[in-house]
Amino acid sequence: MSAFVMSVITKRPAFKINVRALADFCQTSGDLISQYRASPSSIEGQFSHRYIQQKRSSPYQPEVSVRLDWQASEFDLSVNGRVDGITEQGIEEIKTSRIPPSEIPETAKALNLSQAKLYAGMIATRNPNQELFKVSVCYVHPQTLQEWPEVSWLSTAELIDYLVECCTRYSDWLALKVKHNRALIPWLNNLNFPFGEMRPEQRLMAESVYKSSVTKRHLAVEAPTGTGKTLAALYPALKAMGSQPIDSIFYLSMKTTGQEAAWSSVALADTEAAINAVQLSAKDTYCLSKETPCDGQYCKFANQYFEKRSNLRVHLFDPVHWTGQAITEFGKTHEICPYYLSQDWAIWADLIIGDLNYIYDTTAVQPYLLKEIDNRATVLIDEAHNLIDRGRMIYSTDFNGEALHKLRQQCPKRIKKTLSKIQTALRNCCKDKHLMIDSEPPLALIQQARQFVSDSAALLREEPSFEPPIEWQQFIFLCSRFVRLSELANERDFIWRYHDGKTHERKVELLCLNPASLLEEKHNLVNNVVAFSATLKPAAYSLTLNGLTSAVFQTLPSPFLPSQHRVRIIDDVSTRFSDRLALPELIRPLLHSYCHNKKNTWVFFSSYMQLNNCVKSLRLNSERHIVQNPHWSSDDKAQLLTRFRNERGITLFCVLGGVFSEGIDLPGEQLEQVVIIGPGLPQVNDINNRIKDSLSQQGLPGFDYTYMYPGLQKVLQAAGRTVRTHSDIGEIILVDDRFKTYWQQGLLPSYWQVRLCSIKDWTDTTAAP
After folding, report:
1. In angstroms, rounded to a whole number, what is the distance separating the alpha carbons of residues 177 and 279?
2. What is the DSSP code string of 345-384?
3. Got the DSSP string for 63-113?
4. How far apart are CA 433 and CA 506, in angstroms?
5. Is the pLDDT of residue 2 over 70?
6. What is the DSSP letter of 322?
7. What is the 3-state secondary structure (H, E, C) of 253-314?
8. Omega of the bond prior to 338 within 30 degrees of 0, cis?
9. % pLDDT > 70, the chain
10. Residue 195's pLDDT band (cuts 50, 70, 90)
11. Maximum separation of any 2 CA atoms in the chain, in Å
């Protein structure tokens, strides 16, 4: 693979870390704590800092940059930071907090003090003749601006010793990292593609991914089914990591099938476990003590977490692929929380595989932690056509009366009184509003939610006999997320929707219309993003709403021949809502023809209503003809797919955009025919029309971006279930006159062999009822 041969790095390695991250790394005592607190917004924090700094008298120096250069035998380390304030006697670290220090967990206070001591130690190296330093951590309430200073007087020797101790500890860890990297680089240089030669299309994509990583450019690739996208993204990214502009790779997928494919590729490419790869999974998946809060007081896996983390960190370099199962077993053996351990290990691993949320959610800490240690990550996003809808989901939330009502019923009187204030605020903002859309936020509710999160620890202390149920922690998280997203919302990209009703029925929704700007902020926190999918056209639509307008866009040719995709467009049928009554009888002969032959067939409809209306006109065999049930479980889906792999002549009637539209591989005779009824436009409703209007006001084609293109991508994903290998031949029947327009506009794949047909080609003489 000459295109990917790299030179061995001879340059002396250089590392950076900021002071907060160094303090966190060196934290070796304390438990995990379960209390969620609504952190002050960045704007509140900035204001509090400026207020305190302006209040201080001269010669107080605010915002002083500091740097310490540390030389180890094999590498250089730079510790950087910005001191909030330097006084004549020492330093001041300002922390914005809604609660007094007495209510802040000791673990968090210890981290803040450690950070302040490191800053003081760095200043002390400049002033060795000063015997004592005043080390102040000043907590400030963002609204009242009340100050809670906590002051320590420490000697110069104590501070410099602490600084040296922390740098030494971190330096020892980096020595292990350097040793690992030096062994990894020649291994990466010699890494061969697992399947010998790349396919031509695969090579094109791989070259672009490599160039994107080393030049720090975002890339979006439309790669048709059969390209081998997973390895075409992962393999060159690993190669780029060996050239040292890249420190780590995040392989993110919105479905577990994508993550499973990535792990399969890792197992093929790295049989020796030379790469330290880590799986990130949901807290519920990793939790080993679901019946207890995530708190060291109650859970043994959270107890003394930071000491255990420090002692066990070296195991990251064990010759193991840290899959979900491996991390879970490790957690059981060492009695440490697998969820938080995987999060901590992720910033040091070579490869991280997980869900999109771990970089893009508002609560995601990974991109910021990476930045703190100067970890340049390449982010690979699989099935990127889903990023727009997932982005809207990530940046939307709701505040529902049911959760509040359920918690309130279980609480003692004093806590009930506090929850009643939230209930009142919810009732007032929802009054006489039935699914009403508004641009005005519920300020009183937001304030009550913020206040509850701040007061939650104190409320529990006042009721020592009350053991909080699981709903307590869930409600704190709900409030925290609601407050956080309300701070991000703007009138252009967000709307509020209010639901009135009974106490448990009231709800306030914050809905994201366009996630592009928030996604772009996350994209720009990493080295580069590579987004890939079989369906990203039109490019302008995908790049604009995915926040990737600066990305290079690449379209790959199909590895399959046009003759393998036998596409027929029936252009004299309308599936529009106004024609819904005539549709079932009109297409009955067509459906009868495809569901009564000896081939496996999937028939996709634009909605369950359309599906149910059309199948009523057919004579169905319950054994051979299966109608999708919206309540099917994952086991039901798996059993159905097993039938298609083992049987012939069966038909599935299902809905576009659902679980059967993508991520399913049924090659050869397992699935030979796909019939798609209608262009799959999203439902016309108030929310979608708001999206359309908002995009139109920004000068974008609102209807196309809201209805036409999302529907088209669902159609193309469904059509892609056929033709999975070079020997497959698939029939794709598109039923609606609008498909002819799409074809003429070049919106359908150029590698399809398309023929226009009439519904009259299927008559009662060819398909008897």
Report:
1. 19
2. HHTT-SEEEEETHHHHSTT--HHHHHHHTT--EEEEESSG
3. EEEEEEEEE-SS-EEEEEEEEEEE-SSEEEEEEE-SS-GGGS-HHHHHHHH
4. 10
5. no
6. B
7. ECCHHHHHHHHHHHHHHCCCCCCCEEECCCHHHHCCCCCCCCCCCCCCCCCCHHHHHHHHHH
8. no
9. 97
10. confident
11. 103
The predicted structure's pLDDT at residue 634 = 87
Torsion of CA 367, 368, 369, 373, to 10 degrees: 100
φ, ψ for residue 447, nearest 5 deg: -65, -40
What span, in angstroms and rounded, lies between the C-alpha atoms of 23 and 113? Answer: 9
Are the CB atoms for 607 and 683 separated by under 8 Å? yes
Closest CA to 499 of 489, 491, 509, 486: 509
Q: Which residue has the tokens 């009350």?
A: 466
Tokens 């866009």, residue located: 553
Per-residue burial over 339-374, b if 16 or more Cβ lie within 10 Å, else e, is bbbbbbbbbbbbbbbbbbbbbbbbebebbebbbbbe
Q: Identify whether 194 is preceded by a cis peptide bond (ω within 30 of 0).
A: no
CA distances from 567 to 134, 369, 534, 673, 676 (A): 77, 49, 17, 10, 11
Output the six-digit token pair for 481: 């997320």
**CA 628 to CA 604: how far, in whole Å?**
10
Residue by residue, DSSP assigns 423-445 as: HHHHHHHHTT-EEEEESS--HHH
Distance CA 716, CA 747 (A): 10
Higher pLDDT, 222 or 104: 222
Give the DSSP H or E segment for 570: strand 565-570
Distances (CA, A) of 663 to 674, 689, 752: 15, 29, 20
**pLDDT tens for each residue of 49-94:** 999 999 999 899 999 999 999 999 999 999 999 999 999 999 999 9
Q: Distance (Å, rounded) from C-alpha 171 to C-alpha 75?
A: 9
CA distance 388 to 271: 36
Total count of residues recorded for the chain: 769
pLDDT in tens, 334-389: 999 999 999 999 999 999 999 999 999 988 878 888 888 888 999 999 999 999 99
Residue 767 has a pLDDT of 45
Write out pLDDT tens, residues 572-610: 999 999 999 999 999 999 999 998 899 999 999 999 999
Q: Which residue has the higher pLDDT, 199 or 763?
A: 199
Residue 31, helix vs strand vs coil: coil
Whole-angstrom Cα distance, residue 399 to residue 426?
9
Average pLDDT over residues 657-681: 93
- Local confidence band at 34 (pLDDT 50, 70, 90 cut-offs): low
**In contact, 448 and 454? CB cutoff 8 Å:** no
Q: What would the two tokens of residue 685 be?
A: 């409703």
As beta bridge partners, residue 483 has none
